[in-house]
Structure to design on (462 residues):
């Protein structure tokens, strides 16, 4: 299993002002954690609670349908193009970047074992959209449009452009190049998919975007590029079993949630940094930033009191950011808790040749890049300790679907437990919806005329 080391957040190493007496805090919060975990598990199947993501590891039916479709289309497409944003894109990006061979899209078909390249078009930059369309042969591309609400302006505008280009190229056959992932009832995409006859996968009820990576939102793109989704699901299920344990001493999601909550509320560390020491895990930090920010950043608590809660997530990458952000982390304000993600065994052991021995870089020869990366991670952690800055470390035995499934699911449960500790609803996103509604109003969507008037009034004030 993946492991959590929280020693470096303890007051015994970084002092009482910045560290926690972790053993004592676990004891103090023991009963509260029991109640939180029991409550999450009690509510997870209830409609309207948005906790059904806790069941996704067990949805064998979805895995079966996804694999069946992926096998059917395997040799028909050179590329998969995912259209989606936020929770409809970040999990896919994080997992494909971690599990596919690096530089996947540059490999030959043979090196990719016959599986297609994969591209994610999450933003709506006109230059990058047009640029990607210049590169892709759409007739050989399967377009997976993903939106839970079925009407997100970014995703649907991309889709409208691409649908027209596909149709211009392929005439009536264009439908075979589109697969939709959306809600089973609501939303414009569902309506269009039915009218047009697209193959469709369903995002289950009560699964929010940022918690949807183990639904068809993630599983379909993974299966299309040959990622073993059983292995991921096994990791999710095994982690789920561990995290059903209500004893905080045995539950790493509860431990990390409590440490982050107390660091924020008792020690003023309202910034949480996610820093994997692995380029393949770099988008895990992006995925986590969205999960943590959208779930925990809330104006009101569950009692309706204005609280403006939310620790700010920051993404970093080891060792790259040792030459950038680390200066601030070491010597700047003591307002952060840093999460390292470490990988014990990389797929490759890359030796540095014994050359230039007569120079100042001679000491590197004969060591490996792996040794260097580990030495850098260790020295960064100890340096931060010297500056009394708290860190925790999550260790993965290696990067594969099993451990990645564990990691992402652990972070989801950690976020849910943190939400309960903060006494907020971790599963809505009114701040995101508000901006979406204003965009609809500015773009002239029917039904948003009043918002448009208000907005135009406010904008003329500036
Ligand atoms: O987590 C969330 O709910 C959001 O980030 C959504 O995923 C994002 O806004 C995209 O929404 P949709 O899937 O409805 O297009």
């Amino acid at each position: 299993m993946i492991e959590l080391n929280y020693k470096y957040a303890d007051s015994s190493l970084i002092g009482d002002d910045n560290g926690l007496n972790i053993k004592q805090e676990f004891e103090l919060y023991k009963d509260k954690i029991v109640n939180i975990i029991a409550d999450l598990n009690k509510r997870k199947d209830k409609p309207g609670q948005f906790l059904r993501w806790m069941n996704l590891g067990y949805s064998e039916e979805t895995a079966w349908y996804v694999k069946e479709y992926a096998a059917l289309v395997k040799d028909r497409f050179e590329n998969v193009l995912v259209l989606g944003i936020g929770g409809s894109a970040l999990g896919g990006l994080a997992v494909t970047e971690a599990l596919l061979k690096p530089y996947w899209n540059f490999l030959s078909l043979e090196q990719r074992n016959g599986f297609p390249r994969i591209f994610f078009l999450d933003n709506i930059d006109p230059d990058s959209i047009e640029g990607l369309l210049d590169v892709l042969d759409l007739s050989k591309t399967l377009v997976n449009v993903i939106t839970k609400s079925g009407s997100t302006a970014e995703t649907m505008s991309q889709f409208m452009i691409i649908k027209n280009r596909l149709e211009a190229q392929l005439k009536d056959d264009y439908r075979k190049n589109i697969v939709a992932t959306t809600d089973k009832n609501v939303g414009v995409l569902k309506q269009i998919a039915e009218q047009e006859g697209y193959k469709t996968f369903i995002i289950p009820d009560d699964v929010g975007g940022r918690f949807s990576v183990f639904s068809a939102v993630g599983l379909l793109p993974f299966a299309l590029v040959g990622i073993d989704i059983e292995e991921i699901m096994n990791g999710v299920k095994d982690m789920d079993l561990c995290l059903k344990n209500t004893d905080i001493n045995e539950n790493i999601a509860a431990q990390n949630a409590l440490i982050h909550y107390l660091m924020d509320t008792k020690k003023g560390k309202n910034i949480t940094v996610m820093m994997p020491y692995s380029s393949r895990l770099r988008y895990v930090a992006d995925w986590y930033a969205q999960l943590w920010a959208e779930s925990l950043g809330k104006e009101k608590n569950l009692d309706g009191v204005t609280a403006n809660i939310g620790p700010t997530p920051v993404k970093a990458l080891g060792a790259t950011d040792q030459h950038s952000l680390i200066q601030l982390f070491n010597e700047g304000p003591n307002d952060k808790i840093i999460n390292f993600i470490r990988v014990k065994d990389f797929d490759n052991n890359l030796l540095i040749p014994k050359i230039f021995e007569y120079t100042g870089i001679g000491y590197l020869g004969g060591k490996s890049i792996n040794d260097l990366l580990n030495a850098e991670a260790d020295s960064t952690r100890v340096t931060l300790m010297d500056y009394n800055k708290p860190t925790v470390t999550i260790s993965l035995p290696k990067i594969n679907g099993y451990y990645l499934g564990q990691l992402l699911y652990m972070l989801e449960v950690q976020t849910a437990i943190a939400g309960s500790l903060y006494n907020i609803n971790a599963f809505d996103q009114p701040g995101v919806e508000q901006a979406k509604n204003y965009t609809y109003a500015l773009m002239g969507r029917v039904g948003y005329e009043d918002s448009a008037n208000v907005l135009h009034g406010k904008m003329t004030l500036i």
Notes: The mean pLDDT is 96.
